[in-house]
Amino acid sequence: EDDEDDEDDEDDEIDSDEDAALAAAFAASDDDDDASEEGANDSDSEDETDSEDETANGSARGASRAPMRALEPPKKPSLVDKMRAKLSGGQFRMLNEALYTTTGDEALRMVEDQPGMFSAYHAGFREQTKEWPVRPVDACLKWLATQPKTLRVADFGCGDAELAKRAPQKTVHSFDLESEAKGVVACNMANVPLDDASVEVAVFSLSLMGTDYGSFMEEAHRVLKVGGVCWIAEVRSRFDGSKGVASIESFIAAATELGFKLQGSVDERNKMFFVLRLVKSGAERPRRVRWPALKACIYKRR
Hints:
Layout lengths: L1 H55 L1 H4 L17 H8 L2 H13 L2 H10 L3 H13 L6 H9 L7 E5 L5 H5 L4 E6 L7 E3 L12 E7 L7 H11 E12 L12 H11 L1 E3 L10 E8 L22
Parallel strand pairs: 1-2, 1-4, 2-3, 4-5
Antiparallel strand pairs: 5-7, 6-7
Helix pairs in contact: 1-6, 3-6
């Protein structure tokens, strides 16, 4: 029982660390906004004082007037400013929760009905993950740098397609629910426009989001060549094994049933997410795999 309590405490600590990291960027941006407002108020006060002085001493100066202060160019809005203009905190939580608690088809329809909303979501998420010691995309790029440049890569849930921009491989197919970034194909991750056995690497970087995420894994299995690698990074707390939620072990068991084999061991060194590599071991796959549910990442109200 003491061991279970220790594990619960560790999970709570991980969740707390994730929440703190995910909120840090917004807190920092709030401080920047406050500082900007204070600066603007100071400037307004100085302008009012100058105006009063000029009125009181106008007769003494006669026609001579102090030169007008040059207006400073408006401050360029930050990424967070742009994101906030499109998406309030409440909307961000709502969209985030919807992406984790709907199917891939439902998520695609939702994004299609709200153009620009998904890009705003990604802008907010990028700001949040800046606070992480290591980002999953950087971990993936580090691994890809050790692989042949001739490998063909499929990035499932690519966001702003950073992997395609920075990977040493010449061919990186980028897929997500919206296609504002250059080269991104908008689609459901369960139905990407690639031929069977056409790539050597499939990537899921924090993108196993739908309730039918198993169909994304099955699609990755379809497009991978035998011997190809499915590289996955996911938030650790999604696999806590409690209340019917998947553990890492049960997830790997389902992937093994599909026709994958774990390469090496699960990398759990990062306190935010774990990384695993699954190798496609055979061309055949069973008709149906029972995928364990993954815990949704629901941001708490603050």
